[in-house]
Each structure stands twice: as structure tokens, then as C-alpha cells.
Amino acid sequence: MKKRDFLKGSLLTMGALLLPRKIWAMDFYPTTSKAEWAVLYGTWCGSSRDAAAWISEGMNGIAKVFDVRENPDLSGYKYVIVGGSIRAGKTTPELQRYLTEHNEQLKGKIKGLFAVCGNMKQPVTQVQYQQLIDNHLSKLTGVSNVASKVFLGRITWGLMDPDARKQLQAFNMDEYDNLKRSECMAFGKEVLRSVAP
């Protein structure tokens, strides 16, 4: 190896190591402009991640999508949509904690709520809206009377923690996927319409 090539490579490597950690994070959720909207989600196995990305897609990519485990700073966003995957009638502990800790900051910004649940592969009814939106997410956020949606979810054994997989398999549950991109995109459009002047 030539001395000049070695020095170039070394300088590039050192420069890359000095970059802030945030630059290394890959942005999986493209946006079309400086976003005023954020979609915040909590997930166990990725269903709500996909729902959140598709909701943003339905809004023509104007919403930035955040996993609650990133502990995002949403103070710079004008509007927020909040949702997550459901287990035993509740969203993830991380989402519950985040919403409790940031309640005052978010309260006036939340314009949509969503939940993703398997619902034993049964159609969503008003009962799920009452349990998951009215009695859970609305209480966590202190927000009601905003656009809301309960999506059917999916089970992918390879993405599930062993304890949850064992519990569900005990019910003779199979893998399935009832989360629909078109429904998530339609909800994104509904939320946008709900705040249109």
C-alpha cells in the first residue's frame, strides 16, 4: 500500500469517527420537506413501526416518524400522531412512560391516536376503540376527540420475544398479517383533513 493511500484512508477514518452519533442513524422514513408533523410509536415486533411509516406516507411524507425508544425531542413539531402496538390491552411500557413524562409538552399537539392489535384475528369493533383509544391512549395523552384508528396487527414468530411467542403458541396461534398499508395511509389522510382550515 502506498504511503499516500494509507494516509488518506486514515484521515477519512478518523474524520468519520468524529461525526456526531445522530448522523450515523439511517433515516428509514423519508420526508418531503421540513416536517411540522411527527408520528410517535411504540412497538414490540415492528407492526406499529410499519403502521407509523405508512401513516406518514398517506400524509405525502410530511411527517417524521419516531420510535419512542429513541426518546425523541418533539418540541420542534407543531402536530403529533401517537400510537402503538397492544399487548394485554396496553401499549409498550416505553410509550406509556414517554407520554406520562411529556404530557404537558404534547397535549396541545396531538392530532391523532392509533393502536395496532391482533384482536384474535377478529374484526375491530367499537369495543376495541373504547378499550384501546378512549380508556388507554386518550387517558395517557389527556387528549380526546381527535382522529383515531385501531388497526389489526400481525404475528411474526421470529420478531417476537420468546416468552410472548410461547404464550401465543399455547393458544394454537399461527403467524398472520392483517395490517394493511392502505388503511394506514387512509388514516394519515384523515388526520390531515381533520386539521385542515
Automatic annotation (TrEMBL):
Residues 37-192 form the Flavodoxin-like domain. InterPro entries: Flavodoxin/NO_synth, Flavodoxin_dom, Flavoprotein-like_sf. One of its GO terms (molecular function) is FMN binding. Keywords: Signal. The keyword Signal applies. Pfam families: Flavodoxin_5. The keyword rRNA-binding does not apply. Residues 1-25 form the signal peptide. SUPFAM superfamilies: Flavoproteins. This is Protoporphyrinogen IX oxidase. It comes from Paludibacter jiangxiensis. The lineage of its organism: Bacteria, Pseudomonadati, Bacteroidota, Bacteroidia, Bacteroidales.
